[in-house]
Amino acid sequence: MLEFPTWKKVMLWAVAIMGALAALPSIASLTNNDWPDQLPDPTVNLGLDLAGGSHILLEAERSQVAAKRLEDMEEGVRNALRRAEPQRIRIGDVSTDGGELSFLLDDAADIDRARGEIEDLMAGTGPVREWDLQVVDGQRFVLTPTEAGLDNAVDAAMEGALRTIGIRVDELGTREPTILRQGDTRIVVQVPGLQDPDALKALLGKTAKLEFKLVERDASAEEVQRGFVPGGEVYPYADTDTYQGTGVVVQRLGGIDGETLTGAIQTFDSQTNEPVVSITFNPEGGTRFRTMTTKYTGRQFAIILDGEVISAPVMREPIVNGQSQISGSFTTESANELAIQLRSGALPVDLAVVEERTVGPDLGADSIKQGLLAMGIGTLLVMVLMIVTYGRFGIYSTVALVINVMMLLGIMAMLGATLTLPGIAGFVLTIGAAVDANVLINERIREERKRGRRVMAAVENGYKEASRAIYDANITNFIAGVLLFQFGSGPIKGFAVVLVVGLFTSVFTAVPLTRMWVAGWLRKARPSDLNI
Amino acid sequence: MKLLKLVPDDTNIKFLKWRVPFFVVSLLLIAASWALVMTKGLNYGVDFAGGLEVRATFTERSEAPVSELRSDIEGLGYGSPVVQRFGEDNQVSIRVRLPDEVSADNEAAQAAANAVVQELQGKYPDFRLDGNDNVSGKVSGEFREDAVFALVLAMLGVALYIWIRFEWQFGVGGLFALFHDVSLTLGMFSLFQLEFSLQIIAAILAIIGYSLNDTIVVYDRIRENLKKYRKMPLPELLDLSVNETLARTVMTSLTLLVALIPLLLFGPASLFGLTAAITLGIFVGTYSSIYMAAPLLVWMGVTSNSFIPEETVADRQEKKLRGEV
Hints:
Family (chain B): Belongs to the SecD/SecF family. SecF subfamily.
Oligomer: heterodimer
Domain Protein export membrane protein SecD/SecF C-terminal (chain B): 120-301
Pfam families (chain B): Sec_GG, SecD_SecF_C
Mean pLDDT of chain A: 85
Main location (chain B): membrane
CATH architecture of the largest domain in chain B: Up-down Bundle
Number of strands of chain B: 6
Radius of gyration of chain B: 26 Å
Number of strands of chain A: 20
Largest interface: A-B, 79 and 79 residues
Strand content of chain A: 15-25%
Protein name (chain B): Protein-export membrane protein SecF
CATH topology of the largest domain in chain B: Multidrug efflux transporter AcrB transmembrane fold
Largest sheet of chain B: 4 strands, antiparallel
Shape of chain A: elongated
Helix content of chain A: 40-55%
């Protein structure tokens, strides 16, 4: 017990000192003190409940991806069969009901050609089979999407959405946003210190699918309700205060979409001085825009964003330079928002906000201050209690306790873990666990002395006998902590992190470290009695 | 220096003498807790119920206009909100449980959240939004499932470990003690209709952790004494073990309380529910280690043979050689 080899002493001290030093940058930043730039400074991440900021959980509907995929397939099939060589393949009775695409060949003799065209379309990018093709009654083709194919499509859509959101959030100019995929169809966006969560939501919640289509005529209310008319599509006005009527009928085919944009910026209209969004097309889009505006000069074009008509200006002259502007009843902010959305491209899938949490920065700062103050008072009281109860052994425990708290903070900083409000409660509990280990040991030493054991033997037995309970208790808590981290959400995770890291630091500081100190003292002082 | 002794040296309380009445009372309490949870239910916060919560400070007045706020939001047509003081007198938390059809529709739920904030910002110039939570029905349902799953899994996981390290009776006893603690905490939350959120789940987990510590310390001592006093009747041995560890139990509970009480008094308001639950749990957890985990061992028939390693053939041969058999 008294024999502590030098290497062991060096190691214990090194771990304790390094662990404790690692906490200094965090302590400096938590208390708003300066930390020299030259020194390494991993600080503990503060959760949004402490730092202030916004947490937004976005979710895509798998069914929406499936529907869009089916739609794309329908269009692909129509195009491919129309362009088939040597002559087009005629089909009819096309339906996408029940999640599958089916159509009837006009002429059963086309079956092999049709199959060839469609098999080209069905080939996915990966090794998995994305569609199943069946031919019923020799003439009806049925295309059924496979689950694996849908998985791929969802995955691709989410990856695309992640990129688009990354660009949009960057445009806000906030510091260190976190954007992560969560599960199959969710994306978490966390922006620390954000002042205006509404702007963020407005920016993320919009798909920003932009289309230009030729207007046929104004739509009646019933048509808007129904959403389609033969040969055309019906779109409602986004802003019915400014525009008379409920919506417009546009040509279904043709038109230009936002994917051909290369730039979008908020400017002001030179005549009316209203905020507008100036857009630039790529060469292909520019050409199509020129052709369309030349052919249909004097006609009305609908500018459609996410299925709603923003404005429907009359094209007075052909637009040849590949630039245009979108007007509508914008404010400077909303025009800027739209510009950002257009620049980042459309989201490949609609995302809905399913969870939103915001904490004002003031409140977060207050929480930290109060939490730290309370923790400080608590730790101090615990120290006093330990010292009046166990004397010298209490002093060892309290020094170990301070090192424990610092190591815990330091290791969390090094791991890049996040400290949350429930994490502070976890800290308090860890302090309890660390003290409990020493209480167990010290009580055991008392007992052994009472039974008449000599000083050395009592201390040795105290540590040995108490360790069993300490390890068992900590391992069970460790099991619980790991399970919680794995299966818990939000605050539970934040609590579990502190709990698990705290178990290691508290056992380390409460057992081997104090044991080294006690041994050192015993060897030097050789006391014949213990005041414990 | 004379050191403080919380528990006198020769303490010998006959805990186990009262094991039947205490156990019956505990069973009744567990039953009552679940009855409360079933009938009265838990007062779910937005984490578990969905809906929105807005926290705000009225910067220009000393007291928040609670009843006015209630009627303001009622006027918006989402039902009646829960408006509570939160921290200082001029700070409130407003919880609005959206009607199901609104909650299910993400856009409608967002619109409702905006409407509430705009209404208050428009009406009260000194309204400062400190934060808001907005949780859709779907996510809140998942939080509920996750929480239950994590809790049950954690309890079973630790019971399994105790079983492996001790004996099956100890595993069952430990699990039952945890079940007791969780039940009573839930019952308490149901009885007083305190807000039940994800944070409270964290608190229950802390209670489980603490109660477990207690149970294991007592169990460890029982195991030790079983080996030491092979002839002692079990109830007496349990009493001895509990008494021997009593000084530790009292001291640890006291230090934890001493650490938690400042957090209750001076800590951030958002941590109050969590700390209050843990504080209560310390009493419940200590009690259950003594009155649930230990007596169960008597009834499940733990014997002193449980921890005696079986004689191996080699041992026996050695004994034979020495002429002991």
